[in-house]
Specification:
The complex is a heterodimer of chains A (about 325) and B (about 290). Chain A is about 50% helix and about 20% strand. Chain A has about 325 residues and is α/β, with parallel strands linked by helices. Chain A has 2 domains: about 5-55; about 65-310, 2-enoyl-CoA Hydratase, Chain A, domain 1 (Alpha-Beta Complex), CATH 3.90.226.10. In chain A, the strands form 2 sheets. In chain A, strands 1, 2, 3, 4, 5, 6, 7 and 8 form an 8-stranded mixed sheet that branches. A two-stranded antiparallel sheet of chain A has the order 9-10. In chain A, helix 1 packs antiparallel against helix 2 and helix 4 (about 70-80) packs across helix 13 (about 275-295). Chain B is built from 10 helices and 11 strands. Classes of the chains: A alpha/beta (about 325), B alpha/beta (about 290). The interface between A and B is large, with 56 and 61 residues. Chain B: This is Acetyl-coenzyme A carboxylase carboxyl transferase subunit beta.
Chain lengths: ~325, ~290
Amino acid sequence: MVAELEFEKPLVELRRKIQELKEFMKTADVDLSSEIEKLEARLTKLENEVYANLTPWDRVQIARHPQRPTTLDYIERLFTNFFECHGDRCFGDDEAIVGGIADYDGLPVTVIGHQRGKDTKENLRRNFGMPHPEGYRKALRLMKQAEKFSRPIICFIDTKGAYPGKAAEERGQSEAIARNLFEMAGLTVPVVCIVIGEGGSGGALALGVGNHIHMLENSTYSVISPEGAAAILWKDASLAQRAAETMKITAHDLKTLGVIDEIIPEVKGGAHRNADEQAKEIDRVLRASLKQLLALDGEALVEQRYEKFKQMGQVSFLQETIRAR
Amino acid sequence: MWKDLFVKKKKYAAIPSEPLRPEVPEGVMTKCPQCKKIMYTKELVKNLRVCLSCGYHHPMPARERIESVLDEGSFREYDAGMTSVNPLGFPGYIEKLEADRRKSGLNEAVVTGEGTLEGHPLAIAVMDSSFRMGSMGSVVGEKIARAVERAHEQRMPFLIFTASGGARMQEGVLSLMQMAKTSAALKRFSNDGGLFISVMTHPTTGGVSASFASLGDYNFAEPGALIGFAGRRVIEQTVREELPEDFQTAEFLLKHGQLDAVIHRHELKEKLAVVLAIHAGGGESGWWRN
């Protein structure tokens, strides 16, 4: 059974009631089926209501759900013959990022993504999906390899952020992220980025300079975590809920701000309820994306990516407000 | 009376005075945050804001920086009228911008333009930490990207002085995207052989250090400048270990291979001129030509 979230409490109660009645019907000799039917109808209605009116903070909870499918879950479902490649050839292998080559229904691709764990043991191994510089350098190495062999690149974004640690600073966390932004901007193969969980700041963007950027409906993408924003802006981390709203971090917000291309719908209740179905939704968008991008040559791809990021942001001149370009 | 001599003097309640803000020197005197010596602001400014006693490099306003490195009267500003809007409708943001505009005399946290340095034409961007901590929002990103594009069009080197706390929270994810925008502009510039020199000054952290600041063909820094990705407190909280005294200073970065050189402010112009001259190439003798 998947862990329930705070806003799902009314649903949980109703579900339990239905379950109780069903159990009771088995033991006692009474017919409650019409009662149960009624309750089930109410449950469906309530579910629709709850999931249609998710607040940004609810979505943050879904994006952080421990059972939310990770990069490897989607790789397994979308590709065949995934062959994982390790190491940055400089320092080590960072397991907070996975990457390799794979077959996407006949199309050779390179797949890279942040990888978090679903339990403590796995999370320790994956450093909670928070990469060190060697992780980003591995990712870049694989992207350059993809470019050499003309393979499209697919990036799954799912991190709270780049790891804030002593060793990370010593080995140049800033430079590693900056280098990825710089080099990704020049890749002559299609790059499709999909935010599947949390997209945390520069650590997320370092895999995010794509021709197309898509987001799962309940994922988030932001310059800082709601807790971090609350601590900096209002000196109070407990105002995270308010920050989640103010900071505009949901897929719908980012679509409005002109940062992402498509919102990938999630299965009812969130991706963790059905990874197989969720993978199918991703598959649909990813195929369309690649089909469109594979029609462009290398130069056009670089140009399209450049223009995409150039128009992001809003500025004004004198009194007149216009988009950056 | 004798007795009066022994009566304790009346006590006065200590009313805390306004805390000293050494980062924003105002008025006649300035206190050095490092050696605590108090000196005439005028003399400090004349010394390029390098402490006369201990050599501490005080933050330098963008206009003074431009004056200190470019040839006199050569500077022409780009996009001076570009200002921020409030894309997220963030409460209080417009007022904060207004207040900083008045305080710093700047429209935004970066001044861009072109000029000459010892005769070498170049495009330049100078960040100023007195405007919203030099944080990068849409305007900072756009002005820098445009300056790079102009350098590219006119085949000039691009020089930047960074000073920034990172991305601007109040513009949310749009601030984050400026990291990609500026880096993309630099990539295109670089592919065409453009020369980019980055001089990191105190402080250069977060999204700025993790984008254009670290992408120079030459990465320089001023002595003692704080440079890093994550904040010291955040790191201390996550790793729970003692961090070295010089952690995230320019000297620390030099030791760990992240910088080409740490350069004293008094020698900056001269050293930059050397690099520019080598890139301009074509010495008088030409002995290598057949």
